[in-house]
Write a structure and sequence with these properties.
heterotrimer; A: 179 residues; Four Helix Bundle (Hemerythrin (Met), subunit A); C: mainly alpha; cell membrane (chain C); NADH_UbQ_OxRdtase_su1/FPO (chain C); EC 7.1.1.- (chain C); transmembrane (chain C)
């Protein structure tokens, strides 16, 4: 098969198109002043990333992305926004005063990273044919044969997070702190 | 697929997240930008796993660890845990201070509060206003109606 | 060329099923509820025992004015019904009707894909509740989201149990691997899955966030006309999807006492219909659960049961190879 940079394959074209959508919605998400719209554009960005994972034949991770990020994380973010009185329409205090500095830092970091990455991987291609290594079966086998200890440590971490969140959100009813 | 495509997209998404973390004032928007950064990292991990697990097929057999995919799954789980705790903290702060604006969370500094809520702010020598003393003094000034 | 034609025909067939089956369930609900309550139900639309009642309802909804409240967020308000409805169409694509390739699109990640996509439907209700610029809608939307998030977990765990038993997450694979003695083995998981699915659909007795005597209509209060109809269609499509998933996962899908492989589709549809009847029956039988009782049921009753079911499945799988 040809490995030309100027003759992209179908998968590459699809990847670039979805990537443009993902990047665009991510940029809108961090710049819009409507708080709930920011969360919804984040949903589009995360969905675009799930499609990218499918294009890279990592199916299990794509569905985990949809299930956990879009189905739970964004719902929690929306909960947080609604419980902290997010207004309909633009919110005046969405952006802080150091937007210019932030833009400069981000652009500089982007330039540096993109240059380094393109320079380092100029002649590297991913072979996407052959048996997919991203099926549930393959991922499950690899996870439970080689990654058991980190898996168990992760479950302890999730338990700690769960307990912590519950403790943090209890209302202190019996403390006399209403001076 | 040329490896540069996912790597460049990942770098650009990461920098978008960096802009969001630095430029946003609402705590939840900052959390959202952190999620963007974590997702950029995940994309990188998945792309490199796709490259290495196939490139290594002809070479080293022990590179079938699929470390990129395993680490991506762990990152997703950790991000979910972090969002849970982060939102619990933001909601607790909102309940106490009445605002989710991170630029105004300056209670541990020695100067008095900028909105003139004098009270205990300056006279508390140790400045340990983050404990139970702080909310008591600022409760009159800024306490919003309790959310459900 | 025939490959593309095949895919198009399958998509069309699933779309037709998506539009027809919920209406059948809705009409059945009218009649069954009525007869269980000692009355007759719709009798006039269409002449013979009111069979065209839902068609008439559809026409009524289509010709209504599309009202968006003045203070509402227009784009999010208008987008919410689509976000609530599309996930069910996507899930219907992967539910197998019979052995082999009698399925819209055979997805390798089967049940995992189905539950992940169903989780996205929560966003539709949340968007609707917030964008309506109505306090009751917001409260209803928050309650809906909390309920749907809580009940996703028992559903996932029960489905994981049966996937463990079958050794695959593909829906076709699970229905293929079904044996008759799975029914008592997975019965706890089946009940947990079904009850959790009912709560996901906000069907009585889990309809606290959308009950009109509680909160007008919750997140969907401000909706009229076609968008309102889409939300109702989402509920009935959800019933079809839930019954279809329970059939394929826990009741053996297309396996039946006679007819072999050719009549597989009939058994699937029959089992789905029986489960839909049970869903309607539950509506007219039990009073609704209060919000805190609802959450308690999920976290302190269904989740431990589902975990026990997974433990039982694991033990049996290891002991009896």
């Amino acid at each position: 098969m040809s490995h030309g940079f100027l003759s992209p394959t179908g998968v590459e074209i699809a990847f670039v198109l979805v990537g443009v959508v993902t990047l665009g919605s991510a940029i809108v998400s961090v710049t819009t002043r409507r708080l709930v719209h920011a969360a919804l554009w984040l949903v589009v960005a995360l969905g675009g990333l799930a499609v990218e994972y499918l294009l890279l034949t990592a199916e299990f991770i794509a569905w985990v992305q949809v299930l956990i990020y879009i189905g739970s994380v964004v719902v929690l973010l929306l909960f947080g926004l609604m419980l902290t009185r997010a207004p309909i329409g633009r919110s005046p205090d969405a952006d802080s005063g150091n937007r210019g500095v932030a833009l400069g830092v981000a652009v500089a970091a982007a330039a540096a990273l993109v240059w380094v990455v393109v320079d380092a991987f100029r002649t590297t291609w991913i072979e996407l044919d052959g048996a997919s290594a991203g099926t549930t079966k393959a991922t499950g086998e690899s996870l439970f044969q080689h990654w058991v200890l980190p898996f168990e440590a992760l479950s302890v971490l999730l338990l700690a997070a769960l307990v912590g969140a519950i403790v943090l959100s209890r209302k202190r009813a019996a403390e006399g702190d209403e001076r | 697929m040329h490896l540069a495509y996912p790597a460049v997209l990942s770098a650009l998404l990461f920098c978008t997240g960096v802009y969001g973390v630095l430029a946003r004032r609402n705590a939840i928007l900052v959390l959202m930008s952190v999620e963007l950064m974590l997702n950029a990292v995940n994309l990188n991990l998945v792309a490199f796993d796709a490259w290495l697990s196939r490139a290594a097929r002809s070479a080293l057999p022990h590179d079938t660890l699929h470390s990129g995919q395993a680490l991506t799954l762990f990152t997703i789980a950790i991000a979910a845990a972090e969002i849970g705790i982060g939102l619990a903290i933001v909601l607790a702060v909102y309940r106490n201070r009445g605002t989710a604006d991170i630029d105004r969370l300056r209670d541990t500094t020695e100067r008095g509060r900028t909105d003139g809520d004098g009270g205990d702010g300056g006279s508390d020598g140790s400045g340990a206003g983050a404990g139970s003393a702080g909310p008591g003094g600022t409760a009159t000034g800024e306490k919003a109606e309790a959310t459900a | 060329m025939t490959d593309a034609l095949d895919v198009t025909l399958r998509l069309l067939a699933v779309l037709v099923a998506f539009l027809v089956l919920p209406l059948v369930v809705g009409q059945t609900e009218h009649k069954v509820m009525a007869h269980m309550q000692g009355r007759l139900g719709p009798m006039y639309a269409g002449g013979f025992h009111g069979w065209a009642q839902l068609v008439a309802d559809g026409v009524k909804f289509v010709q209504k004015e599309d009202v968006v409240p003045a203070g509402a967020d227009r784009r999010v308000f208008q987008l919410a019904p689509a976000v609530a409805l599309l996930p069910y169409l996507l899930v219907l694509l992967v539910i197998p009707l019979g052995p082999g390739d009698a399925v819209g699109q055979a997805v390798d990640a089967g049940i995992f894909f189905a539950l992940a996509v169903m989780g996205v439907g929560v966003l539709g209700s949340l968007m609707a509740g917030w964008a309506s610029a109505n306090k009751f809608s917001l409260l209803g939307g928050l309650r809906t989201a909390a309920q749907l998030l809580s009940y996703e977990l028992p559903m996932l765990l029960a489905a994981a149990s049966v996937a463990m038993a079958a050794g695959t997450v593909s829906l076709t694979g699970i229905a293929d691997a079904f044996e008759w003695w799975w029914l008592p083995w997975q019965i706890v998981g089946a009940i947990v899955f079904f009850v959790a699915g009912l709560a996901e659909l906000q069907r009585p007795p889990f309809d606290m966030p959308v009950a009109d005597s509680e909160i007008i209509f919750g997140a969907y209060t401000e909706y009229t006309g076609l968008r309102f109809a889409f939300f109702l269609l989402a509920e009935y499509a959800g019933i079809v999807v839930l019954c279809g998933l329970t059939t394929v996962l826990f009741l053996g899908g297309w396996q039946g006492p006679f007819g072999g492989d050719g009549l597989g589709w009939f058994w699937t549809l029959l089992k789905t219909a029986v489960l839909a009847f049970v869903v309607i029956w539950l509506r007219v039988t039990y009073p609704r659960l209060r919000e805190d009782q609802l959450q308690k049921l999920s976290w302190t009753f269904l989740v431990p049961l589902a975990l026990a079911q997974i433990a039982l499945t694991g033990v049996v799988k290891v002991v009896i190879p």
